[in-house]
Amino acid sequence: MKASTSFKAAVHLPLLKAMLLCIDDDEDVWECEKSFLESFSYAVLTGPSGRRGLEVASARSIDVVMEKMSLAGPA
């Protein structure tokens, strides 16, 4: 019996686009992160502060939050 070298998927699942939120006080950093992640088909929102990030997250359904650990000022 000869082994098959090809594979055909029997099930086609829809691609789900994750919503990411990038928070950083350096605009160059979050614009770079946004461009990089969008190249992998992620939907990316950005915020310049923890406070603004919370506003965005409360208004949208966010799957992943990426935040700079040393943001200055109150959250």
How would you explain this protein's 3D organization?
The termini are far apart. The protein has helices spanning 27-38, 50-59, and strands spanning 19-23, 43-47, 64-67. The chain is of the alpha/beta class. The chain is flat. The protein has a three-stranded parallel sheet. 11% of the residues are buried. The protein has two helices and three strands. It has a domain at 19-67: 3-Layer(aba) Sandwich (Rossmann fold). 29% of the residues lie in helices and 19% in strands.
Present the secondary structure layout.
Layout: E1 19-23, H1 27-38, E2 43-47, H2 50-59, E3 64-67
Parallel strand pairs: 1-2, 1-3
Main sheet overview = 3 strands, parallel
Global outline: flat
Q: How many alpha or pi helices?
A: 2
Could you report the average pLDDT, rounded to the nearest whole number? 78
| Rg computed from alpha carbons, rounded to a whole number of angstroms | 19 Å
Report how far apart the termini are.
65 Å
Q: In what range is the share of β-strand residues?
A: 15-25%
CATH architecture of the domain at 19-67: 3-Layer(aba) Sandwich
CATH class of the domain at 19-67: Alpha Beta
Could you estimate the helical fraction of the residues in percent? 25-40%
Tell me how many strands there are.
3
Order of helices and strands: EHEHE
